[in-house]
Amino acid sequence: MTEDIRIYVEEAPGQRTEHIGPTDMGLSLMELLKASGYNIMATCGGMALCATCHVEVLAGPALPEPSDDELDMLETLPVVHTGSRLSCQIRLTPRTDGLVVRLAATGA
Per the database record, which ranges form the 2Fe-2S ferredoxin-type domain (predicted)? Predict the structure, then answer.
């Protein structure tokens, strides 16, 4: 049975857009964001090698700890926040329902 979850993207302070994603396809948050029309380059194809899918987690459920590869890539960014994550490394699961993120500035 498919369980859809809700992910919220903060477009501006106090302005959040809801996106619904399936949990039965093994999708990443990056894939949902790209399918929703956000301008995410994802030049490495979701391998945690480019950081063009950098997001800031603002609220929601606790996520699994980032991998060493993800942490290494985040360290290369000029601006990192407490909630910085690579959206390619966050899988859509029932546990990510209600997640609130903001796209990080990429300079593009």
Answer: 3-107
In the chain, where the domains are located: 4-103
Quote the CA–CA distance of 67 and 55 in Å, as a whole number.
16
- Cβ neighbours around 96 below 10 Å, total: 21
Q: pLDDT tens-digit profile of 22-38?
A: 999 999 999 999 999 99
How far, in Å, CA of 10 to CA of 84, rounded? Answer: 14
d(CA 13, CA 1): 35
11, 34 contact by CB (below 8 A): no
Judged by DSSP in three states, 20 sits in: strand
Domain 4-103, classified CATH 3.10.20.30, yes or no: yes
